[in-house]
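During the reporting period the student researcher (J.K.) took over the structure-prediction task from the postdoctoral fellow and processed the backlog of single-chain submissions. One of the processed entries is reproduced below for the supervisory committee.
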Amino acid sequence: MVGKGKVMIEKTVIGGKDLFFTVEEGMAYWGDHNKAVKMIDHAKKAGADAIEFQLYRAQEFIIKNSPKYEILKAVELSDASIQRLIKHAKLKKIAFIATVLSPSLIEKLASWGCSAFNINASDLNNPDIIDRVSQSGKPFFISTLLATEKEVDWAVDRIHRRSSAIPRFTILHGQHTMFSEEGGPKIEETSLGFINVLKKRYGVPVGFIDHTPLQWMPAVAVAAGADVITKHMAIARSEKGPDWHICLEPDEMQETITWSKHIKASIDQSVKSMGENEKKDIRIMRKSIVASKQIKVDQIIKSQDIQFKRPGTGISPDQVDKVVGRKAKHDILPDQIIDRKDLK
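J.K. obtained the following structure tokens:
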């Protein structure tokens, strides 16, 4: 089962040479439109390629007698607010990813110009969301947290069977434990090795949703093969939004994105290369051919007359055959670095 077609979000090819890094706001704006705008600004400044908002209509999302219904209803964003956020994201040149939790919003979001959809892990087995997103014409992500391999197979098969056009999607691997474990998943349970298994199985790009609180975890996931990283951010953890304990603050996020993108650039290099500072170190670390004793003028230099010592500013040891057997042009002192101008 191989996914066909290029996955592109805005101007970035997913799975290409560039890492695609998404900041997930995690409902940290608490329904405040102005704070949501600031989240977009912070994500852009941190170097993110996209910001992801979870969008819903409470009456479609959760039963009314749930104790969380009124809270979710109070903080849901209006249609007008969502449209303004999408426009602001376009102005800032950052992709707007909609994790859509209510079916009625999908067509609207596509018409308003969202960059891509994300099928939330809670909807991986939801045919209503899967069908509408895969038929929207937008690129999309499939979040496989909480799922078994069999459930992922089911979702991917359904996407291929129900999409009239070539489905362009990316799979997101990860774990979700925040409701039962505040510290996020244990490192040894993140199964980063499964990223490349997913790539081979489905023939599509694969990313990692990081629900650990660790700054360095995204870079490790990139090293494991992730094409996309999604990481939660809050303007301040002290505000204690829904996922505050796994969120990074903006300055931390900027560092994390920088590390991750540098790692991606390094992994994509398939040739041996040296940085400018490494070239400087050669002169310090390598060795040169030096006189082991005094060498007289016109003396034929023998192997016992030389040694190899630091620094590497003289003739390289691998050029020894071009020194042994030559005559000294003048006296050469013990421990003196031999230069070509010292030889006849």
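The committee noted the following: The chain has a mean pLDDT of 93.
J.K. will present the remaining backlog at the next meeting.
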